[in-house]
Amino acid sequence: MVNIFQIDETLLQEALALSNHPTATPLIEAALREYIQRRKQLKVLELFGTIDYEEDYNYKQQRQTI
User: Fold this and answer.
1) Residue 50 DSSP label
2) What would the DSSP string read from start to end of 5-49?
3) pLDDT, tens only, 18-54
4) Distance from the first to the final alpha carbon of the chain
5) Cα 40 to chain center, whole Å?
6) 11: which of 20, 41, 61, 62 lies 20 to 30 Å off by Cα?
């Protein structure tokens, strides 16, 4: 297998063994998608506790039709 990105071969083989991907390319693409999703989730988690809200806000009232 040609490794143009100098990825650790042991890591790559272990990941291939754990996945259902037949080759490294779809495996790496899936890993990158998971990495990006996780990083986005962490950014959202950083917002917890930083957003102010009104204590007496009644969301149920907003759902009522006139």
Assistant:
1) T
2) T---HHHHHHHHHHSS-SSHHHHHHHHHHHHHHHHHHHHHHHHTT
3) 999 999 999 999 999 999 999 999 998 888 878 787 8
4) 66
5) 6
6) 41
